[in-house]
């Protein structure tokens, strides 16, 4: 929820390169946290092979759910793309909030 507005704020005040730098830093922090905090071997669990994981794509109901999810997220991010121009053109907001 805060990613797009925060990225826009950073981009407008510091530049687009700093936005990518901030996202990269957050990605490295997430990777390091995962490597440190997630256990390597969870007892009682057997890892499923690639073939077993891909078998879920043979179930029509799951494919419908995946399609609905993809379209829903796609719609949200499409709305994010047009949010700033609409606020500037229709509502009279100025870039940078000044």
UniProtKB/TrEMBL annotation:
It is a multi-pass membrane protein. Residues 1-98 form the Major facilitator superfamily (MFS) profile domain. Keywords: Cell membrane, Membrane, Transmembrane, Transmembrane helix. GO terms for molecular function: transmembrane transporter activity. The chain crosses the membrane at residues 20-42, 63-84. InterPro entries: MFS (IPR011701), MFS_dom (IPR020846), MFS_Efflux_Transporters (IPR050189), MFS_trans_sf (IPR036259). It is found in: Cell membrane. One of its GO terms (cellular component) is plasma membrane. It comes from the Bacteria. Pfam families: MFS_1. PANTHER family: INNER MEMBRANE TRANSPORT PROTEIN YDHP (PTHR43124:SF8), PURINE EFFLUX PUMP PBUE (PTHR43124). This is Drug efflux protein.
């Amino acid at each position: 929820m805060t990613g797009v507005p925060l990225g826009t704020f950073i981009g407008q005040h510091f530049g687009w390169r700093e936005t990518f730098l901030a996202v990269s830093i957050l990605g490295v922090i997430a990777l390091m946290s995962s490597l440190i905090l997630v256990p390597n071997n969870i007892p009682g669990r057997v890892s499923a092979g690639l073939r077993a994981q891909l078998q879920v794509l043979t179930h029509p109901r799951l494919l419908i759910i995946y399609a609905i999810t993809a379209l829903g997220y796609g719609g949200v991010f499409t709305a994010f793309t047009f949010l700033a121009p609409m606020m500037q053109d229709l509502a009279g907001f100025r870039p940078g909030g000044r």
